[in-house]
Structure formats: C-alpha cells, structure tokens
C-alpha cells in the first residue's frame, strides 16, 4: 500500500503546478520612501548567455491597495517567464492617501529609471524591458506612456512594449461623467482639471510603446473602454492590440503565466517586441 501511495503521489506531482522556479527575490529601494520598492527575480543563466529581457510587473488595487509580492501578482508570471530566461521585477509605488494616482505613475517612472541603471548588474538588457500592469496598475502604465513630460521628469528608461490587464481609467473625463465605482471619486475627486491631469487619453500627445490590452468579456465596460483606448493609440500612430478573456477582473491578472490562451497571446506579443 505504501508503495502504491508513493507511486500515486509521484504520478500526481507530474501534473500539479510546481514551486516557483526562483531563489527568494532581492528587495531593493528605487526611492527614499519605504513604499518605493521592487522585488527582483533572476533566472538561472550562464554568464555566456545574452543579457536577459526584463518583465516589469505593476499590481492593481484601486490606487490604494495591493502589493508586489502577492501570489496573484507574481506566481504564475514567475513560473512562465523565469524558465524562459526573463528577469522579473515586481514594483510597488506609494498608494493613496499618501500619493495621488499621478504621483504613483511618477513612482513607476522612477522605478523604470532605476531598472535601466541596474540592469547590467543583473546581466539583464535595459533595451528589452516589457511593462505589465493590472487594473489601476494598468492606468499608471498607460498614463506614464502617454505623458512624455512625466517620463522626462522621472528619467524613465524607454521600454519595448506595454501589456495592460483589464485596465482602468483610460479616459477619465468619460468615466467620471457617468455612473462609476465610488473609489474613482476617492482617487480623482470632482475637479475636471484633475481628471484630465490623470487621464491617459487626455495626456496622449504622440506614439507610445506597442500596447496589448487584455480585457474581461464577462462585463460590458472593460472591453469597450479598452477598445476605445486602443483605437485612440492607433489614431496617434502607435501599435495597439486587444484580446478578450472570459475571466473575471482578478483572474485576468492571476492567470497570466498559466497554461491558457491568454498567456500564449501575451507571450507571443512580448516575444515579437523584444526580438525573440
């Protein structure tokens, strides 16, 4: 019986997800505030291999919650991209009420500047950075990409592509003028000028990195808003693609890296943009 149980356990282990293939992350500070921190996960690589591409992950949480180390933020992404030779950097920014969304986007810019400076010490390639943001993290990414002046202020390293997972707040003037979740009022207030300052659509002036938007098809708004923003990016000369995912808002993020069509589409998009 014990032999049979052992064989059964070995059989099942072949089909169950294994542990994340990484050493414990190295936590670093990219700014003076304790919240301005990033976890760096490095693949096992021979020194003779080309420098690793970099996947930067930005968590969601309505601009006031979330953490870089949460399982739904990093676990599946590490399982997929670390064995494929990527360095993975999961970023925290300051959150409300300490920092407004625009200040959080500036934190992301500072994190990218720091990643660009540090990449060589990780045997990673700062010219092959891909940034992936979920929900409010997708808004921070879209705002930073749209606002060239913010990139200059923060010294953000250029990145090769953006992946936005069920993003939020692309066109804040439209969002705020219609029925919306109460946390939008907490984040953006009642002043239309503040809406414009934090709105990727309002700040967009020209081309941004190629962008893939994944949206939940289980509710009408996410894909409609994502498609509108993709059309706006295309009209401004940028590359933008949209994929619909039959998962809820949280799953659109947590399932990236698992064995599914969403992961395959995102991985193909990333590989095409970094020349793999």
Automatic annotation (TrEMBL):
Signal peptide: 1-22
InterPro entries named in the record: AB_hydrolase_fold (IPR029058), BD-FAE-like_dom (IPR049492), GDXG_lipolytic_enzyme (IPR050300), Lipase_GDXG_HIS_AS (IPR002168)
Keywords for this protein: Hydrolase, Signal
GO MF annotation, one: hydrolase activity
UniProt-listed PANTHER family: AB HYDROLASE SUPERFAMILY PROTEIN C4A8.06C (PTHR48081), KYNURENINE FORMAMIDASE (PTHR48081:SF33)
Organism placement in taxonomy: Bacteria, Pseudomonadati, Pseudomonadota, Betaproteobacteria, Burkholderiales
Sequence ranges assigned to domain BD-FAE-like in this UniProt record: 39-212
Pfam families from the UniProt entry: BD-FAE
Family: Belongs to the 'GDXG' lipolytic enzyme family.
Domain of life the protein comes from: Bacteria
Protein source organism: Achromobacter seleniivolatilans
Name this protein carries in UniProt: Alpha/beta hydrolase
